Amino acid sequence: MEGIVTRNVRKEVNNRAKSDDIADRVQVKVKAQLDEMVASKVQERYAADDLVGRVQVNVKAQLDEMVTSKVKKKYAADDILLSKILADARLVQQQLQRSSSSKQKRPVFCVEPRTTKPKKKSHKADHKSTGEKKRRTGSRSSPPKQQKRRVKTANVLVL
Q1: Global pTM?
Q2: Which long-range contacts (CB under 8 A, 24 or more apart) does 35-39 make?
Q3: Where is the composition biased (Low complexity) (predicted)?
């Protein structure tokens, strides 16, 4: 019986050693798989964060580009308006220079106020000169004299 007990003890020791060895191997494999899973999750997470970061950078770049293009358009519109205003100002300045530098001087009239009011013509004189009405016989036997108008001459200044 002693031999049977020793065989059983050896078998059990061998079985325990084998089971411990198998358990260690399984534990190592499970740890390796867990490490792999964690590493892959970490890599996926970093990859996802990297993708999100890249997308954010691209979106920011596109927004910056849109804003700068709108600003450029506004400045371009303002520049066009400013250039038109400056062109108009140059044109006016050139016209002024041409008119002031031309050999022909423009006369400028200065009219003085009249000292006497002009006399109105009588309606009779208008009718008599055109012959529309018959002459009336009255104290005058000669036709009425035409009144001379007094016209003042204007002073002319040359610029």
Answers
A1: 0.31
A2: none
A3: 93-102
